[in-house]
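Q: What changes when phosphoenolpyruvate is included in the input?
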Amino acid sequence: MTPSKKVITPRPLVVGNWKMHKTASDTRDLTQDIVKRVERVANIDMVICPPFTSLPAAHETLGRHSVIALGAQNMHAAKEGAFTGEISGPMLREFGVRYVILGHSERRQFDNETSEKVAAKAISAVGYHLRPIVCVGETLTQREADETTAVVESQIRSSLSGFPSEQIDELVVAYEPVWAIGTGKVATPRQAGEVHTKIRKLLIKIFGPKGSGIRILYGGSVKPENAAALMAEPDIDGALVGGASLDARAFFDIIEAARPTRASEHD
Ligand code: PEP
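A: The predicted holo structure follows.
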């Protein structure tokens, strides 16, 4: 498939999704290890998303001017209220959180996270100056039934319904084929690149030319060994990394693979 016509070349972004791993004290150790390795890395945005209970520890360890930003793995759309077990945007902001993963397939699968809920959360997130990372992706059954394009398009349209177009600079989309998450089965660069190009075209259709600046991350068993080939695809702007982000060395290697070859592009 021919790559989309990008008006804007987005700055690459690598996000580590720690899922339900690491206590607060483990978080201090891993954060320190990552910071040491990436301190001098430039021309790329980097984010770690520890569990809620580890956000204060990560925030403290990163300090105020860290090259690494902090992200959360979910949030509630409301500011406050009778929502037992939930966390709101303002609560995340208090701990320096700048990004929030929304609609991860594990939440869609196990926690009844619908695209309608994701849309409400994404709108709320930007209202609190949090950058939403909206996840979409097909299951293996859907891919085998040749439904990938339809599923991904429908998830994007409904997960971004009502999203304010003046805030699209804040938006990140992650394409994560469900069959590739935590399974060790990675989409080939061509398989991933094809879907990314379709997503880019759709974002341009929805938001106009500025849609070409929305970062589209690939996620699903990204490892140091496969990162460079995936990142070479023209419409892949970075990675959402699960398992490998728990290993500072592997996370650093993936970041290096995602950095632009022409450094001047993203100074
Ligand atoms: C993820 O958690 O979003 C993910 C892609 O996990 P993994 O890299 O382990 O497949």
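Observations recorded in class: The chain has one domain: 9-75+87-258.
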